[in-house]
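Recap from last week: sequence in, structure out.
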Amino acid sequence: MRVLTRTLVGATAAVGIAVGGLTATSASAAASAPSATPPAISEDAAPLAVVNLGLNTTEAGYVQCWLKDFWGYTGAIDGQLGTNSWKAMQRNLKAHWGYTGAIDGVVGSGTVSGLQRSLKAHQGYTGAIDGIAGSGTRAAFKRFAADSKAFC
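Predicted structure tokens:
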């Protein structure tokens, strides 16, 4: 009987949590409870990272127009530089600016270094090729975005 009661209480609590109940439980108590297993998220449902490197959505949209015209970007011109925008940028960086990594849309130090080489050649970037998107890299990327407006 004790096992049945424990099972029934556990199932009731799980249903209550799923429905949003158990309001008597404080947020701190709920946050401190360890999770037995992490939630399962399919690869298709995982959120895409947006890395605008300091650009607002209008400026990032200009970059997407340029990527669409020259580097096979097929997504929306929405001002959100996500995985597909960065894959297109990586194709450019691999072809011309010494990027040697995977075309994976991840904005890591290799992607930033390639971008810095391009910005040094065409947008007045004067900093080190260090793979860090600091203020100089971001300012030069804004100049690139402004020049890309012509492609929208």
